[in-house]
Design a protein that fits this description.
Strand content: 15-25%
Number of strands: 18
Helix content: 25-40%
Bound molecules: zinc ion
Radius of gyration: 24 Å
Low-confidence stretches: 1-12
Length: about 475
């Protein structure tokens, strides 16, 4: 996994670089903690359900009052969990409008002890078409071991993992021995527009030695994971122009290809015949330690029978350590308005996922150069840049990583695996820029059936219970550092 590189990490922090093996908790203490988690878990579930009932969609078309209400609800939970300083704060977005409310709750570190920042977000994705859901997205509904609802996993379960761990440690009646700062953001699902300003405004308040980002996934039900790599993102719009105005397809068709065809040829050049990304300079890293079984991938993604998978190498590698190019939008003449006309121009929005070790700027340069070099029949190709997000590659064996591995192994009874995630969490790069000494642990409550962002999102309650225990054990482990 080291070969994935670590493009955004900074200088040497104690918890990031040290390689001492933490001493495990005594079996008695672990058993006591496990019993406390079992006792308090029904309340954790009830509080999670209350959060899911608040439709805190941060997208701009939705009522921001719900996001404000969920911030207040989270603040109440953190106050009840015994954190003495709780604030609801906002920072400005780049356009100077106010960002969504974030909650910051703290217990300062005892002298000489580290501070752990526990991150989650309380906003959610839009629900999509309610008809696609088996039950109302904002009415938490348990079926079997899973709790369904928008945000039940992403990321209100992350919020409750932090709250539950703090409650379990409080029930133990001992100070965990670390400073704790809980930071629950309110606009992650909208791209965290005020995040960088928030870090600038509250740099001291959020400073930490270890940052736990509870917004990812475990490997599968029963097998925990640490997310040690995340792909970055580059997007933008490519425009193809071939005529200075639309013309009759009978009178002029033949000697000139319409812009829709030119665009199709340009887009086809982005992959080779077996589906590998064919953009020179957009390279991948080595293969990951674990693989994604093709059958599981096909089922999870809903790949239709007969459709062959694209690219070469392991599926996990194609998802985590290799680039991916998708066409996420297309402006072409729509079928309903089609006439016998050659389209003069067409546009496509491209979304490129880039692996750790590849800088977004150089990835964009490579993409632009490819598009210009492959202009079909000399068509005018224009690239308009969009968003960029850095990839993340964790150092393989920090002290914090070891403490997390030990805690996860105890909570699940099986060792965690290192995984990558094909998606991006761009704010992790912001965190590492602000706190280059900090070790970042990316943990999560999801599993492959969680369907975050989709219809029928859910969390597995048995797994959430283990996540709570693991985080309580982790905080104690970090105290012993
Ligand atoms: Zn999330």
């Amino acid at each position: 996994m080291e070969s994935r590189g670590a493009p955004v990490r900074g200088g040497g922090g104690r918890y990031r670089d040290a390689v001492t093996t933490p001493t495990p908790d005594t079996p008695d203490l672990t058993a006591a903690l496990r019993a406390h988690v079992d006792d308090l878990f029904p309340a954790v579930q009830t509080d999670l359900e209350a959060l899911v009932r608040i439709p805190s969609v941060s997208a701009s078309a939705f009522d921001p009052a719900h996001v404000a209400a969920s911030a207040e609800a989270v603040a109440d939970l953190l106050r009840d969990a015994g954190l003495p300083e709780v604030q609801v704060l906002r920072s400005a977005r780049p356009d100077a409008s106010p960002g969504a409310p974030a909650v910051v709750a703290r217990r300062p570190a005892p002298d000489g002890a580290p501070t752990v920042l526990l991150y989650a977000h309380h906003d959610v994705q839009p629900p999509g078409d309610p008809a696609d859901w088996t039950s109302d997205p904002f009415v938490p509904t348990q079926r079997g071991e899973r709790l369904f609802g928008r945000g039940a996993a992403d990321d209100k379960a992350g919020v409750m993992a932090h709250v539950g761990a703090l409650r379990a440690l409080a029930a133990l009646g001992e100070d965990p021995g670390v400073g704790v700062t809980v930071f629950v953001e309110g606009e992650e699902e909208s791209g965290s527009p005020s995040f960088a300003q928030f870090l600038a405004d509250h740099h001291e308040l959020l400073a930490a030695d270890v940052i736990v980002v509870a917004d990812s996934t475990n490997w599968k039900v029963g097998v925990p994971a640490l997310t040690t790599s995340l792909r970055g993102l580059v997007d933008g719009v490519v425009t193809v122009e071939v005529l200075d105005h639309a013309v009759h397809s009978g009178m002029f068709g033949g000697p000139v290809l319409d812009a829709n065809l030119a665009m199709a040829r340009l887009l086809a050049s982005l992959h080779d015949d077996v589906g590998n990304v064919a953009v020179t300079g957009l390279t991948g890293a080595g293969e990951p330690e674990v693989d994604y079984v093709e059958e599981d991938f096909r089922a999870d993604a809903g790949v239709l029978d007969g459709v062959r998978l694209a690219g070469e190498g392991t599926i996990a590698g194609r998802l985590w350590t290799k680039p991916a190019v998708a066409v996420i939008g297309l402006d072409a003449t729509d079928v309903a308005h089609a006439s016998n006309t050659l389209a003069p121009s067409a546009a496509a929005k491209l979304s490129v996922r880039i692996p750790p070790g590849v800088d977004p700027r150089s990835a964009e340069d490579a993409l632009r150069a490819h598009l210009e070099a492959h202009a079909p029949f000399g068509a005018r190709v224009t690239w308009t840049p969009g968003e960029q997000g850095k990839a993340f590659g964790a150092p393989a064996d920090s002290a914090a990583m070891q403490a997390a591995r030990a805690a996860f192994a105890t909570a699940w009874g099986t060792d965690p695996v290192d995984i990558g995630v094909g998606g991006s969490i761009p704010f992790i790069a912001d965190l590492l820029e602000a706190y280059p000494q900090a070790a970042v642990l990316v943990t999560g409550v999801e599993d492959p059936d969680s369907r975050a962002h989709g219809a029928d999102e859910s969390v597995h309650l048995g797994e959430l219970r283990k996540v709570v225990l693991a985080e309580a054990l982790l905080l104690r482990g970090l105290a012993r550092g």
